[in-house]
Amino acid sequence: MEQQRSISGSSQSPRSPSSQPYLSVSVTDPVKLGNGVQAYISYRVITKTNLPEYQGPEKIVIRRYSDFVWLHDHLFEKYKGIFIPPLPEKSAVEKFRFSSEFIEMRCQALDTFVNRIASHHELQQSEDLRTFLQADEETMERLMSQETGIFKRKPADLMQIFKDVQSRVSDVVLGKEKPVEESNPEYEKLKHYIFELENHLAEAQKHAYRLVKRHRELGQSLSDFGKAVKLLGACEGNSLGKVFSDLGTKSETLSDKLQKEAHQLLMNFEEPLKDYVRSVQSIKATIAERANAFRRQCELAETIKLKEINLNRLILIRSDKVGEAEFEYNQLKAESEEATRMFEKIMRLMNEEIVRFQEQKTLDMGIAFHEFAKGQARLANGIATAWRSLLPKLEACSSS
Amino acid sequence: MMGSENEGFEEAHLYASKEEMENLVLDNPLNDSNSYSNYRSAMSSAISDTSHPLAPSILVTPADSDPILSPPPYRDHLYHNSPTESSYIEPPPFGDNVGDVNGVENHSLNLDNFGRFSRSASWSTSSSSDSEYVKITVSNPQKEQEASNSIVPGGGNYVTYLITTRTNVPEFGGVEFSVRRRFRDVVTLSDRLAESYRGLFIPPRPDKSVVESQVMHKQEFVELRRVALEKYLRRLVAHPVIKRSDELKVFLQVQGKLPLATTTDVASRMLDGAVKLPKQLLGDSSVVVAPHEVVQPAKGGRDLLRLFKELKQSVANDWGGSRPLVVEEDKEFLEKKEKINDLEQQLSNVSKQAESLVKAQQDMGDTMGELGLAFIKLTKFENEEAMFNSQRARAHDMKGFATAAVKASRFYRELNAQTVEHLDTIHEYLGLMLVVHSAFSDRSSALLTVQTLLSELSSLESRAEKLEATSSKVFGAGKSRNRKMEDLKETIRATEDAKNIAIREYQRIKENNRSELERLDKEREADLLNMLKGFVHNQVGYMEKIANVWTKVVEETSCYAKENS
User: Fold this and answer.
1) I need a labelling partner for B336 at 20 to 30 A (CA). Which of A46, A49, A147, B295 fits?
2) Which of residues 369-428 of B touch A (CB under 8 A)?
3) Which residues of chain A make contact with B360, given a CB cutoff of 8 A?
4) Where are the annotated segments for Disordered (chain A) (predicted)?
5) Contact A384 B540 (CB under 8 A)
6) What's the per-residue H, E or C state across B230-270?
7) Per residue of chain B (565 residues), what is the pLDDT tens digit?
């Protein structure tokens, strides 16, 4: 479960720092704490680094899911344009059951999350990350309770974002203004691609999940079949009975193999696919942010024009409000320029991010396919070998 | 690395339908996003025009189903002209014919090179005599009209089947001959056989299926019945005793109307019995069972009086204070019976689990296929929308993966179709258990007849003693006493005769039971062993194929492995 990925080892970002400095993180040892509704899981986060900004070569802190959410949300707010690595689902219902499988998957996903941040050339420099990795538990609690306004609202909640966007759009519509959107054909293509991709991936993930279930079901039925065959063998007696008994035993062995493979499939194939879906959703959130930035830029541009006209008018009539108006105008100008900068930054970042994303996903999927194929080959070979071992006995039986 | 679209699909063209569909989906760039539904509709049209050699006998093929999924027709055909799909599969050929070539198509254990059995239970296959064969084919169903006055206006349509026999058995007096028979004739044959061969394990005839005949499409039903009839008749000729029976010979050879006594229905029999009863009670007709009736069970016959007597006897057996005069003493038989019951239970259990297993294998294959298809769509999508080389690389990886998944899916489903066949032996033997029970009940009803007659005899004899002991105190009563004595002695003699016949019948049935149980044990052992062999060979063969498919993907994606380690 421990994945120690050092920055120097990864070839994900074309801009990774030189191999000298390293930052390696792992999320591990989930422990269930608390009772009933209050129950939660705590994780050990181990940081190994030689970076000067960090407090030492190794630091271990205890974090819970909401802490990861804190980190995610902060990064999302501060690094607009970058595809923030996605978190595993909140899942209010499963919390109560907290099956060991659920915990294992979540731990793996959180580990991936932190590692991706730590290996992203920009995100890894964030102060929030440092806080997350190093602050003691009391400090974290204090920080969490201090959250106000925008962070309390958890903008990472995609639905929330879209609701905001929707409401703003409807405001604009009601205000009889046209909704502003970029007219950028390449960007349109990208948006279309992302939305379509999510659909395809969701379907693939659905079948992957079902496949895990099928493995379990086949394992169960082989086990039951084996038991029944053994009983039938007991009925028969003599050498045939022995063969039946052997077959039944083999059947039960194979059932184990299938259950194991089901677990492998879940962790090494279905979970990466789910992660892929989450990543795409994260991109959608960034797309929404870009839309916000674009709209803000447009709104400000509009407002500035009006202010300029007004200012000139005031100058012309030598009004004593000129100073005030000029001040406002300059302020707005600064804001407008800031908004434009922001928007252009997002555009630039997104272009880089999409390249990184595609490369990352090709790598991730390649690994996933490899693991899947390995598992299936191993399973099939195991089944063939097990059955094959019965053949000599079967032959011996018929010749007697 | 970015190979052509057709890379890896050359071999796909060897296969039927599914890979072709795969090609359709992948090669057609104009294919819209509903490629999945295209696949399905293309799939079902492929089914209808496939040159699947078993296509003619595929009965019910709903639009979405795979021809592979209808197993019953498999059993009755030889595999030598196998479809293209099996050309890929070569598990080690296992053994040659176990048992003998007797030409009956339901051969024991002929594993052809394709790793599949043209399997049949050897209890339905004669393995005793060498080089003798009787081959039966049922074909050519035709509608015919009831000749004359049927009560139902416009009614009286029925179907006849052409039953062709090829044989080298001299008793038949011919090499090849055909007759036309209707289902009613088969019922008659089955009933007459049941009467003549009490105690034997007679293969059960096909159901009357009254409901199905109304509900199903005529054509499908007739085909279903044709197959069932063929199977039934083949089993009959495979039975070592039945194959020599007159009833069967007559059924197979005599043209025109079947010259066997028809079975009247239960209502008529009861009516006849009710008519007879008063006479019996008043002593007008003989109260003793006639010899030809003794050899049949009381139940289902016309003799209500006998029925009552035997019922009384059976109640006395169960609840009465005294032990009946003859009981089932054969310990060996009782043990066997216990074993049979136990066997039945276990067979039933295995049957249930086998069904679950088959379903699970099927689901596995289906879901694997769906996963593959989802990735095929993704591949197309990424290729169409690719802006970066990393996408094209990914699309290539996906294609390899998806192809493997689709192939594996196909293998799972083929494996399953054959698993169904192999495990069907269990179901056959379960069906046989019913027959065994029926043979056992022949025995117990014969025993009941004996017991009844014995106790009747004993009570008659004590009456005779009493009568002997009474002195004629009244003048003139002596004559009537003597007459009564005569009658009584006559009755005793007749009952004695009936008793002896009944005992002989009982012994005969006992012997039938015994020999049949022996035969059952031997054949069951052989059949179950073959079932296991077939099952195991099947699994080995297909699992190897599946492993190869995935090993190839492992190699193709090995570049990612280094990164991960």
Assistant:
1) B295
2) 370-371, 374-375, 377-378, 381, 385, 387-388, 390-391, 393-394, 397-398, 400-401, 404, 408
3) 214, 217-218, 220-222
4) 1-23
5) yes
6) HHHHHHHHHCCCHHHCHHHHHHHHCCCCCCCCCCCCHHHHH
7) 343 444 444 444 333 444 555 454 444 343 333 333 333 433 334 434 433 333 333 333 344 444 333 333 333 333 333 333 333 333 333 333 333 333 333 333 333 333 333 344 455 454 445 577 888 888 888 888 776 655 665 567 888 899 999 988 888 878 888 999 999 999 999 999 988 898 899 998 888 887 877 888 888 888 989 999 999 999 999 898 998 899 999 998 888 888 888 777 767 777 777 777 777 777 666 667 777 777 787 777 778 888 888 888 888 887 776 666 667 677 888 888 999 999 999 999 999 999 999 999 999 999 999 999 999 999 999 999 888 999 999 999 999 999 999 999 999 999 999 999 999 899 999 989 999 999 999 898 888 888 888 888 888 888 888 887 776 666 666 777 788 888 888 888 988 998 899 999 999 999 999 999 999 988 998 999 999 999 999 999 999 999 999 999 999 999 998 654 4
Spatial contact of B80 and B533, defined as CB atoms under 8 Å apart: no
Taking the domains of chain B in order of start, what are their residue ranges? 134-146+155-253, 333-563
CB contact under 8 A, A380 and B394: no
CA-nearest residue to A369 within chain B is B401
Option in B377, B387, B397 nearest A369 (CB) = B397
Crossing angle for the helix pair B35-49 and B17-27, to the nearest 10 degrees: 150
Closest-approach residue (CA) in chain A for B353: A225
**Burial level of A2, CB count in 10 A (0-12/13-18/19+)?**
exposed
The interface predicted TM-score of the complex, written ipTM, equals 0.84
Contact A224 B393 (CB under 8 A): no
Q: How many CA atoms lie within 13 A of B141 on its CB side?
A: 18
Q: Kindly identify which residue of chain B lies nearest to residue A383, measuring between CA atoms.
A: B543
* Inter-chain residue contact A359 with B537, CB threshold 8 Å: no
Q: Are B374 and A373 in contact (CB < 8 Å)?
A: no
Residue A285 CA to residue A275 CA, distance in Å, equals 15
CA dist., res. B471 & res. B485, Å (int): 13
Q: Are residues A83 and A215 in the same domain?
A: no
Classify domain B333-563 at the CATH superfamily level: Arfaptin homology (AH) domain/BAR domain (1.20.1270.60)
Work out how many domains chain A is built from and give that number.
2
A246 to chain B, closest Cα gap in Å: 11
* Pair (A208, A351) in one structural domain: yes
String of DSSP letters for A180-210 = P----HHHHHHHHHHHHHHHHHHHHHHHHHH
How many contacts, defined by CB atoms under 8 Å, are there between A and B?
Answer: 201
B203: DSSP letter: P
**In this complex, which of B371, B400, B560 lies closest to A211 when CB atoms are compared?**
B371
Of the candidates A237, A384, A398, A276, the residue with the CA atom closest to the CA atom of residue B336? A237
Instruction: Mark yes or no for CB contact B360/A394 under 8 Å.
Output: no
Q: Do B353 and A228 touch (CB under 8 A)?
A: yes
